[in-house]
Amino acid sequence: MAELSNIEQLIIDVMQSMGATKEGSIKTADDIAKKCSRPKGLVTNSLITLTQKGLIKRVAREKVAGYYIVQK
What we know:
47% helix; single chain; Arc Repressor Mutant, subunit A; mainly alpha
């Protein structure tokens, strides 16, 4: 697994606890930020980094994007 910062590991852990492990159960950046009690900007930047690392997938939707953990 790629080397993760503390916030990236927290986000992965929170997403797993929220059940965001498949495309049918995606969570928004707002959902994740509220659950891990971190600023939305910090969470959003970390989600982008995690997407670039291939650990999570971003799903563009009509109003707001959602994220889920890629199963490997």
